[in-house]
From TrEMBL:
<dbReference type="GO" id="GO:0004407">
    <property type="term" value="F:histone deacetylase activity"/>
</dbReference>
<keyword id="KW-0006">Acetoin catabolism</keyword>
<feature type="domain" description="Histone deacetylase">
    <location>
        <begin position="22"/>
        <end position="315"/>
    </location>
</feature>
<protein>
    <recommendedName>
        <fullName>Acetoin utilization protein AcuC</fullName>
    </recommendedName>
</protein>
<comment type="similarity">
    <text>Belongs to the histone deacetylase family.</text>
</comment>
<dbReference type="GO" id="GO:0045150">
    <property type="term" value="P:acetoin catabolic process"/>
</dbReference>
<dbReference type="InterPro" id="IPR023696">
    <property type="entry name" value="Ureohydrolase_dom_sf"/>
</dbReference>
<dbReference type="InterPro" id="IPR023801">
    <property type="entry name" value="His_deacetylse_dom"/>
</dbReference>
<dbReference type="InterPro" id="IPR037138">
    <property type="entry name" value="His_deacetylse_dom_sf"/>
</dbReference>
<dbReference type="InterPro" id="IPR000286">
    <property type="entry name" value="HDACs"/>
</dbReference>
<dbReference type="InterPro" id="IPR003085">
    <property type="entry name" value="AcuC"/>
</dbReference>
<comment type="pathway">
    <text>Ketone degradation; acetoin degradation.</text>
</comment>
<dbReference type="Pfam" id="PF00850">
    <property type="entry name" value="Hist_deacetyl"/>
</dbReference>
<dbReference type="GO" id="GO:0040029">
    <property type="term" value="P:epigenetic regulation of gene expression"/>
</dbReference>
Length: 391
């Protein structure tokens, strides 16, 4: 698979820096690439340099007035509107250029798949799934996920599945394609009653002929590896099988982890590894092997994100790593001075157990109630029996 994989990366991605103590610190990207490199995951892989998305490409998703506001924001003072200049989305120097580069990185990855040069492509710098048509939100200025999907629709793809495993609802992508039956959006996230952005209920189904193409699986706080995977497998594979996408686009936020400071799910890095392996399998089964993987959230900068996304890179490249793999001494030496009060992990495992019992059709727990709610909302619209665990 190695020659059929495109890995998009350049240190210029680190320019998407919201500054100060902002949770979305680009050090997480740098440490991921360093860890993957030291473990040999990227050996022999030519890293693809991103390009900046053009204004026209950004406007596939975003209003021209919003694009103009982003371009002008660093010179306009603090009150610029469009969700810019807030605590979540502070204005920063070269904001448009940095954001356009992230979007361009995801476009380059999409282009590699569309051209046939690769079956899989990954941009860990991408996954900015909250940005809306005319405003920034949730640390996201331009929605690279939606831009890549819109570009694919204009370049020969007619059925695209977007699968979001970030702890936060993939609201920006859902909004972009809520009335487009060509795009299936699936989001598995912490329940919106307990976490920002407060959307992603099972009743959000799509509209205007696209009913049944918006799937939301909202999980209770505290959900662990086994519960997450139980719920995922009770809903997602069947929805993908019925939709028959030509490509699977995934947003792979690592903020479902039990140590993430901004959310309340309880997964481990071992659970993340199992999720990534399942995404790869589903791309093979239902999307002809075509898989565009993007990064996303994740705010445990030193202990979690580098390990999780090293597993993601290894999974995309088919160089799976044993969870008990020791963290290299060089990475530890690099990281320790910038994380002086952090107990750094010593292996790629948290000792988690991602084994799970498949859903059996009952609703005896809060998690099972979440499964049933989503199946009963979606499955009748796509011709499946919501109460039959065989569907």
């Amino acid at each position: 698979m190695g020659e059929r994989v495109a890995v998009v990366w350049d240190e210029s991605f680190l320019g998407y820096d919201l500054g100060g103590d902002h949770p979305l610190n680009p050090i997480r990207l740098d440490l991921t690439i360093r860890l993957a490199t030291e473990l040999g995951v990227l050996d022999g892989i030519e890293l693809i340099t991103p390009r900046s998305a053009t204004d026209a490409e950004i406007e596939l998703v975003h209003d021209p007035s919003y694009l103009a506001a982003v371009q002008a924001a660093p010179y306009s003072g603090w009150d610029v509107g469009h969700g810019l200049g807030t605590a979540d989305n502070p204005v920063f120097d070269r904001m448009h250029e940095a954001s356009a580069l992230v979007a361009g990185g995801s476009l380059v990855a999409a282009e590699r798949i569309a051209s046939g040069a690769a079956d899989r492509a990954i941009n860990i710098g991408g996954g900015l799934h909250h940005a809306m048509t005319s405003h920034a939100a949730g640390f996201c200025v331009y929605n690279d996920c939606s831009i890549a999907i819109a570009w694919l629709l204009e370049n020969g793809f007619e059925r695209i599945a977007y699968l979001d495993v970030d702890v936060h609802h993939g609201d920006g992508v859902q909004a972009a394609f809520y009335g487009d039956p060509r795009v299936l959006t699936i989001s598995v996230h912490q329940h919106p009653m307990t976490l920002w952005p407060g959307t992603g209920y099972p009743r959000e189904l799509g509209t205007g002929g696209a009913e049944g193409t918006s799937v939301n699986l909202a999980l209770p706080p505290g959900t662990k590896d086994s519960g997450w995977l139980r719920a995922f497998n009770a809903v997602v594979p069947a929805a993908l099988a019925e939709f028959r996408p030509q490509i699977l686009v995934t947003q792979c936020g690592a903020d479902t982890h039990r140590e993430d400071p901004l959310a309340d799910l309880s997964l481990t890095v071992d659970g993340h590894r199992a999720i990534y392996h399942r995404l790869r399998e589903l791309a093979q089964l239902h999307a002809g092997g075509k898989w565009l993987a993007l990064g996303g959230g994740g705010y445990s900068l030193f202990r979690v994100v580098p390990r999780s996304w090293t597993h993601l890179l290894a999974t995309v490249i088919d160089r799976d790593l044993d969870p008990d793999t020791t963290i290299p001494a060089g990475w530890m030496a690099r990281t320790a001075p910038i994380a002086p009060n952090t107990a750094l992990p010593t292996t790629l495992s948290d000792g988690g157990d991602p084994a799970f019992e498949p859903w059996d059709g009952t609703a005896e727990t809060q998690l099972d109630n979440a499964i049933v709610a989503t199946r009963r909302a979606i499955f009748p619209l796509i011709g499946l029996d919501p109460d039959d665990p065989r569907d």
